[in-house]
Amino acid sequence: MFLCVLCGVESECRVPAGQTSGLQLSQNMKLQVECYSGYKAQERPVIFRIDGHEYRVEEVLDQWYGPADAYFKVRAHDGNLYILRRRTCVPHSDWDLVSFRKAAG
């Protein structure tokens, strides 16, 4: 479920299988994202959960936009890098985990 911090609306999110490296995901895993809403709604992710495991976003390393998506490259408190995607063409849209990279070390 996705929770919009601004309006509190929840919607179902999917984690696509086979689109990550190093993290074992399946079609049944759920991605939940909580966002900071400042100047605009869902401005940036602050916490995300994968199958009940919570990850705090320590730093947004990069952010970019596609024609119908917003992408966030983040470093979580576990030191790993994640790329999260939100569909911008639909209000209260789904989030996907696009990429994962384990921290070096």
Strand portion: over 45%
Cα separation of the termini: 32 Å
Protein structure class: mainly beta
Largest beta-sheet details: 6 strands, antiparallel
Strands in their spatial order, largest beta sheet: 3-4-5-6-7-8
The rounded Rg comes to: 13 Å
Low-confidence stretches are 1-22
The portion of residues assigned to helices is: under 10%
In total, the number of domains comes to 1
Average pLDDT reading = 76
- What is the overall number of helices? 0
Describe the structure.
With 105 residues, the chain is mostly beta strands. The chain has one domain (2-101). It is built from no helices and 8 strands. The strands form 2 sheets. Strands 3-4-5-6-7-8 form a 6-stranded antiparallel beta sheet, with no helix packed on it. The protein has a two-stranded antiparallel sheet with strand order 1-2. The radius of gyration is 13 Å and the shape is globular. The N and C termini lie far apart (32 Å).
Keyphrases for this structure?
105 residues, mainly beta, six-stranded antiparallel beta sheet, two-stranded antiparallel sheet, 8 strands, globular, disordered N terminus
Offer a quick outline of the entry.
The protein is mainly beta and 105 residues long. The chain has strands at residues 2-3, 10-11, 31-36, 44-50, 53-65, 69-76, 81-87, 95-101. Strand 7 (81-87) and strand 8 (95-101) form a beta hairpin.
